[in-house]
Amino acid sequence: MSAQPYPPNPIKKGSNSPIFFSLNVRNTFALIVVPLGACLTIPWVPANRKTWLFGIFYAYLRSFAIVTGYHRLWAHKTYTASTALKLIFALLGAGAGQDHIKKWARDHRAHHRYVDTDQDPYNVKQGFFYAHMGWILFENNETSNTGYVDISDLKSDRIVQWQQKNFVLLFIIMGYLVPAIICGLAYGDFTGGLIYAGCIATALQQQLTFCVNSVAHWIGDQPYTDAKSARQIPWATAILLNGEGYHNYHHEFPTDYRTGIQWYDIDPGKWLISLYSFIGLASNLKSIPQNEINKSVLQRKLQLLEKEGEKVNWGIPLDELPVWKWEDYEQEARTGRNLIVIRGAVHDVSAFVNEHPGGPAMIAGAIGKDATKLFEGEIYRHSNAASNLLDQMRIALIKES
């Protein structure tokens, strides 16, 4: 195994709060200062409806580059993309302002491998804000605790290397200048294009993406596994995050190019990847066999049922019951106790004799005897509810001679 690309975290264990990290000036400027500065200009820059619509459209384009490019292509290798498609992803992804591909994919692979631990770069257990964006604002590679992952494939990818080398310039051009130029040339709104479609739309798109690391690890259902914090919140993030809200499934099956696996699931990411494949820009789409998915679903249902079962009184567990010999049972029955044996267990039915639907006589004849055959159908085949009620009356087990 090659050496870890970043040195281990020298910060003492238990001191993982963002306040122990030095502020990352570059990230803070891009994520906080620029958007706030843009908002301060709003009173002097008219909001053009066309600019806002273009800003939303362009934000979605960049989001698709993150979801289908950075995430499902480079981080998880769920399909193979053509050089042309990878170049588009690299350009639009740079415009999203979420760091270069190699850094983004490395962090995300570490997130999956070390999720919910100190080596998870955006560990939600350090708090909602930390997982959302605190880890970016206070990130310092010299004191990074991010766990080791193999990124040899990313280092050998020429487009990934090219984008990393030119990332800052590409971010400025694709994130701010392109929307300004398009809005300016189309209908003369250069300033509005820069402020609304560039600075503000970029910031909003970033915040929505960050919700995958925070909201999708904080609230929602866990139909596949509860071993990790990832959750399903499709009702909130399917459209806004292009399908990334099916996060519990994604963490259980990260190599699937889909996250919403049902045909009706709103997962624009899978639809786009399918389109890339249809037009010849992508191939080797990976998906998990339905049988393997069914296993996880069933195991989770059984786990939930087991937890529900723990809330129910099933009677004294068999392994906690005292053991009697048959002679002990007969002796106890002769003392006047209303005891019967069914399925090798002694039951004290004293409190139920007068409540029996068939009348007290039906039980009286079985006192001191083995009533298993009577209970299971010789006279009347009792219901499952009757068996459950009987289990709460057991007091001992009969030891066979």
Automatic annotation (TrEMBL):
Which SMART domains does this entry report, sorted A to Z?
A: Cyt-b5
What are the required cofactors? Answer: Fe(2+)
The record's subcellular locations are: Membrane
One Pfam annotation reads FA_desaturase
Instruction: Give the EC number(s) under which this enzyme is classified.
Output: 1.14.19.1
Q: Mostly located where?
A: membrane
Q: What reaction gets catalysed by this protein?
A: octadecanoyl-CoA + 2 Fe(II)-[cytochrome b5] + O2 + 2 H(+) = (9Z)-octadecenoyl-CoA + 2 Fe(III)-[cytochrome b5] + 2 H2O
User: Which UniProt keywords are present, listed alphabetically?
Assistant: Electron transport, Fatty acid biosynthesis, Fatty acid metabolism, Heme, Iron, Lipid biosynthesis, Lipid metabolism, Membrane, Metal-binding, Oxidoreductase, Transmembrane, Transmembrane helix, Transport
* TM segment ranges: 28-45, 52-73, 79-97, 167-187
Topological relation to the membrane, as annotated: Multi-pass membrane protein
Keyword Transcription listed:
no
Top EC class per UniProt? Answer: oxidoreductase
The free-text note explaining how the cofactor binds reads: Expected to bind 2 Fe(2+) ions per subunit.
- Swiss-Prot/TrEMBL GO biological process terms: unsaturated fatty acid biosynthetic process
Residue stretches making up the Cytochrome b5 heme-binding domain: 321-399
Coiled-coil segments on the chain, per record: none
Q: Name one GO molecular function term.
A: stearoyl-CoA 9-desaturase activity
Tell me which InterPro entries the record gives. Answer: Acyl-CoA_deSatase_haem/ster-bd (IPR009160), Acyl-CoA_DS (IPR015876), Cyt_B5-like_heme/steroid-bd (IPR001199), Cyt_B5-like_heme/steroid_sf (IPR036400), Cyt_B5_heme-BS (IPR018506), FA_desaturase_dom (IPR005804), FADS-1_CS (IPR001522)
GO CC, any one term: endoplasmic reticulum membrane
Q: What family is it from?
A: Belongs to the fatty acid desaturase type 1 family.
PANTHER family assigned to the protein according to its UniProt record, in alphabetical order: ACYL-COA DESATURASE (PTHR11351), DESATURASE 1, ISOFORM A-RELATED (PTHR11351:SF31)
Q: What does this protein do?
A: Stearoyl-CoA desaturase that utilizes O(2) and electrons from reduced cytochrome b5 to introduce the first double bond into saturated fatty acyl-CoA substrates.
Identification of the protein by name: Acyl-CoA desaturase
